[in-house]
Amino acid sequence: MAMPTKTKSRLGTYVVRSFQDESVRAYVPPPLPPDPPLALQPLLPLLEQANQALGRLDGLASILPDPSLFIYLYVRKEAVLSSQIEGTQSSFADLVLFENAETPGVRLEDVQEVSSYVAAMNHGLRRLRKDFPLSLRLMREIHNVLLSKGRGSEKHPGEFRTTQNWIGGTRPGNAAFVPPPPEKVMECMAALEKFLHREPEDLPILVKAALVHVQFETIHPFLDGNGRLGRLLITLLLCVASILREPILYLSLYFKMNRQKYYELLDRVRTHGDWETWLEFFLMGVRETAQQTADTSRQILDLIEGDRRRIEQLGRPAVSVLRVHQHLQRKPIITIPATAKELSLSAPTVAKALQHMVKLGLVRETTGKQRHRLFTYHRYLNILNEGTEIPRREGSVSTGTSRPAVREQLE
């Protein structure tokens, strides 16, 4: 990707500070937008492709029979993926079990962290829908919810840091990157807020979201949770700008699958002022993720519709089986007692409905026990679980092929 010839003013400055008897160079980024201005012309075809993919996804979401279900599930998948990047070992299935108060084999601290991400995301969306601006105050509110439980809850939730942090290494002296010193954090964040609200807006919203994400991660304004909140900001910005009517685009899986390149490009912005290469990577991620999300939604629709038709052929029992089938779309792992209570059906009626679904091959009983049995809508869960799989732990629910989650960034 071609870059402007003069990029020196795009580079930040280093502030030398003493930390535990050693000299540390902390990086302070220049305010946005980049100067010299971005060379966007070569990126316009890719930008158009990304916008078109977003438009198709947004249009598809608007015609889904139950958009709220789709959003409910995708918010949770994003929570799992974004938390896995930070090192949690919870899968989508673990989160479902936790929210259903059925947690065999689930590491409570990990799944609490993921659940807090869901709550933080929902809090931010509620505030934005009430016309509250995407501001430093809202970032602190979201962060407060994000770190309310699990790891990081002791690291000043909702407060910008007043001590030095670092990324990689065991101390600032051997770290891969040292963000601005604490006395510069508020100045940097104030400049970022000014960029968020500047008028008139002369940058495409996807470009703006890409810039904001890098700047936030570079400032690293909190002691913990910066990665998760920085990724969440992308989706919130797209919703604020009405590019998406609903929060259905998340880049965590793309970042996770390309994590080495992701971190290399963040560093290259800081060391070379190379925003254009980062933008190319980001826009490719938006295009690919929007296409994948649309494909996944179609898979889910086809599966649900095909299973519904098979259930309808049962005749008289179909009424109760369809109710349980609909319930499984929101909670793909269930127990008989909890389902009976939530649907106001008798336990024998739910058990009989599940027997029919097991015979049809739609549902599997995953424990092999006589009591406390778990029933899984396995093909549905496998679609949602794609990309979030982790090595199976003894006593946990098996949902498909596993893949280890790796901590890539210390926070």
What attributes does this structure have?
5 strands, elongated, Arc Repressor Mutant, subunit A, 5% strand, Fic-like fold, two-stranded antiparallel sheet, 55% helix, 2 domains, disordered C terminus, three-stranded antiparallel beta sheet, 411 residues, mainly alpha
What does this structure look like?
It is a single chain. Helix 10 packs antiparallel against helix 11, helix 11 (275-312) packs antiparallel against helix 12 (318-330) and helix 13 crosses helix 14 (347-360). A hairpin with a 2-residue loop joins strand 1 (13-19) and strand 2. With 411 residues, the chain is mostly helical. Mean pLDDT is 85; it is low at 391-411. The chain has helices at 44-63, 67-85, 92-99, 108-129, 136-146, 182-196, 205-219, 226-240, 252-257, 259-272, 275-312, 318-330, 336-343, 347-360, 378-385, and strands at residues 13-19, 22-28, 333-334, 364-365, 375-376. It is built from 15 helices and five strands. The strands form two sheets. A three-stranded antiparallel β-sheet has the order 3-5-4. A two-stranded antiparallel ribbon has the order 1-2. The chain folds into two domains: 8-295, Orthogonal Bundle (Fic-like fold); 314-385, Arc Repressor Mutant, subunit A (Orthogonal Bundle), CATH 1.10.10.10. The longest helix is centred in the last third of the chain and has 38 residues, at 275-312.
